[in-house]
Amino acid sequence: MQRWNWWIASLFLAASCQAAPADAPAQQFPFICRTQEAGLGQPIVDSFDATAHPVMDSASHQPFGYSRQCAITPRIVYFYYNGSAFKPFAPATDYAHPPADLRRARYGDTSVPFVVQVEVGTINRFFYTIAMLAPAPEPAPLAWNHKLFYWLRGGVGIGHQQGLPMWINGALSRSERELLPSVLEQGFAVLSSSGNETGVHYNMRLAGDTALKVKQHFIASHGQPRYTIAMGGSGGAVQQYLFAQNLPGLFDGGVPIQSFPDMITQTIPISDCPLLGQYFKDAVANDPASPWAHWSSQALVEGMNASDTVRNAQSGRPGTTECINGWRMAMPTVLNPLYRDHRFDLGAHAYGYRDGALDKVKWTHWNDLADIYGEDARGYAPIPLDNVGVQYGLAALAAGKLDADEFLRINACVGAWKEQPDFVAWQGAADPFDSANMLRGERCRWPDGRPAPRRAGDVGAMRRAYTSGQVFTGRRLDIPMIDLRPYLEATLDMHNARQSFATRARLRASDPAQAARQVIWFVRPEADLAPVALEALGVLDRYLAQHQPPPLFTDRCMDGQGATIAAGPAVWDGVLDQHPPGACTRAFPIFSSPRMVAGDSIRGDRFKCALKPVATALADGTYPAGVHFSAAQQAWLARIFPQGVCDYTQGDAGRPPSW
After folding, report:
1. How many domains does the chain have?
2. Do 107 and 158 lie in a common domain?
3. CA–CA gap between residue 513 and residue 502 (Å, rounded)
4. Which residues belong to the signal peptide in this entry (predicted)?
């Protein structure tokens, strides 16, 4: 039996090698296959390499082979909809004798049984699914309107695992259960892949390649669609913007929900959050009467929203900031090479990996993308994080809300992150901001002390982030997008409101004509989001069918019942221009970020600022007329910034010259 399996494996391996294009993303190992968790059996044996995923003999409980591709044989499964959930459906018997709770779908003008056919298989080592309305048994055709709906999931993952498929074992989220019945009832074919779930990985080159191959597979099986509309939240929204830029033609329209322009430039301000949080924590420990004891005061420097009443996710007590509640786990997850989710160890043990199989993995976003960024001799990928010259709190100083001494103390003490080989394991609640991995300064709070050093990011890594398509530059959109956002500022959620406008600002800076293809819809958080998302889908459907924007393809904001507060081209005035605030701008306040308070723009796309000498900054208006530094303070400022301060009139020093 084992010899037969090896023969099958050799054929599969040869076929997969022939199918791999020369420019396919490099494969990552170790890589945990999750086919058994999905209830789909063990993956196909395709390798003799013991570093791949073990495939176990059921009798001996020892590996009889290994799987590099995590492949399964594609299969078809059926579900029916009962009005609240999708349940297993046996086509051989249930078409003739339908379950009592089977709901009927309204497809076109016809009432049909709400039965869904789902194909599940593997492409690029990830699960894909294709779901289509199947109201009658084969050989009757599927109920397809010749349009595709590509669903993309969010989260923050750092690779080394396959993810899980939608649909199988009831693996649909609440939002998917609310949304997908209406999409299927309209006749859309619904495509998905665990490779398009950023909770699995955040390699946008790999994700784009996966989406392209899934769509190609669908076309080979079912024919060319009229058009493809994408939808997804958070990381699913990031994928839409980046695929529109990097892979023109993949999607024809999109509904990015709770969007960011990209993930990689979010690491710029969120890398500041723990540094500032540690400064405020130390300041309050040094002086309980410090103004930083009031959480709302911290927004003066962090820019993001803060509250003295919202429950703190770290302490459980009232008072916190978006930096803490929204982004508290981002830096250990993305930056600390020793921080890994315990489920990796559980999975490796359960699947029979050898002891120590995961020990050499560097658990960072940049190492997850080592095929893009490369690695040094010790296996660490270079990191673009840079805060040389950043003057934290500059806008608060200019506004008279921060005095010169405190401005200097913040910048003398904020420091930076250590280099990767110097990191130690995060201690959680004992060191909530991971200060053990920060560069600190001895007696930094005093003019005669040693300022904490700043970190210079790797310029090569910055440039590779651009050239590999990880950065949304705004140079291309080409397709209509309805950027849909539930307004979550009051809860200090990471999906903050400025992100939609960061994307628009990048589009305007690159090509104003591209910016016209993005409209922004905000809705109050208490509103039911699914009907609004379906309305956005309908607007794009009409846009693509008629080849022109319908009236509802315009900026808009809605109340808690989903009713329009205001709509039209002027509703967001005042966010990106000097016009009086529009109706939506007034209804939905926008906050900023640590780098914006330091003088950067809302675009948030500057990895590394150009520098100018402190003497130049003192003379050129960087500090408004109302700000006066004494001679001693000027000397302290020069010691804090020996290389100079940021000159935000210049572009990103990390951007490739011709990009």
Report:
1. 3
2. yes
3. 16
4. 1-19
